[in-house]
Amino acid sequence: MSEQLEEGPVTLAEAPVRRLNMIEAINEALDIMMERDDTVVAFGEDVGYFGGVFRATAGLQKKYGKARVFDTPINECAIIGAAVGMAAYGLRPVPEIQFADYIYPGYDQLVSEAARLRYRSAGEFTAPITVRSPFGGGIFGGQTHSQSPEALFTHVAGLKVVIPSTPHDAKGLLIAAIEDNDPVIFFEPKRIYNGPFGGYYDKPVEPWARHPASQVPEGYYSIPLGKAKVVQGGEALTVLAYGTMIHVASAVCAEKGVDAEIIDLRTLVPLDVETVQKSVEKTGKCLIVHEATRTGGYGAELSALVQEHCFYHLEKPIERVTGFDTPYPHSLEWAYFPGPVRIGEAIDRLLKD
After folding, report:
1. What amino acid positions are annotated as catalytic residues?
2. Which of 9, 168, 211, 294 has its CA 20 to 30 A from that of 155?
């Protein structure tokens, strides 16, 4: 087994580095795990011969064969149900749900079977399943290809929820998820599959080719689940975000010249409460940004946790900037996203004397 690399500059200094986008990093993680462990199997709609609708599994069927990388019918319940059975009998399945919007037919299998398998069998069986799925908007996919349902899974005891924001993290987190003995929902923000996007329209802040987060170490490395990343240190306020919104919030703070401490949560469950608490206690102000609907969104849980752990350090009410409580608006997609105006207004309220 290859030696596990540490994160940060040590990783980049000790291993050869290539510049990848997130799709390429995910493909590389799958390739590495399939080569290291012959119990890893990947399957889903168009996953095999075609290589996935976003090409995340391109080339894997040719390399590992149809028994380990294969297509399935359009039946999400069967895809996840089959994964539960495979996991119980020794495999490490990595099913792909083509869009997170279509995961709902398989929700019962995740909640009633995968999440409970270890407990209900008294540890006799585990469910080492990693369900990959693109989520969120940004590609003009409309109501049925753009939803952000992460909060529905964070509520379920027994499921872990992971959302990367960079190619470096996508590779390391996916490897860690596949190696985990419990079910992991691995949501991939498709708006940044090919590069980070800023707070305005569909213009990249900086292409991955020049972005430091595109520097991905070659070979095997994993990033522990449950550990947030401080993207940048700061004193004025704490920004909590994940996925695409890390890049949006960072762009707004940079444009406004705000000395913000920006924290990429990376895993929503388990959550790195310690890092969040330490930051908010230092800054005294907290801004939460996510793309999903506001009511019942993951930001509400974050807000409650910050209140519980940091109440006496807060100098202003917690601010949330989120999607709206509406069906996903195809024609108004960029107005729906948290962007520079709404995030900027929230920052101004937090910093106002």
Report:
1. 145
2. 168
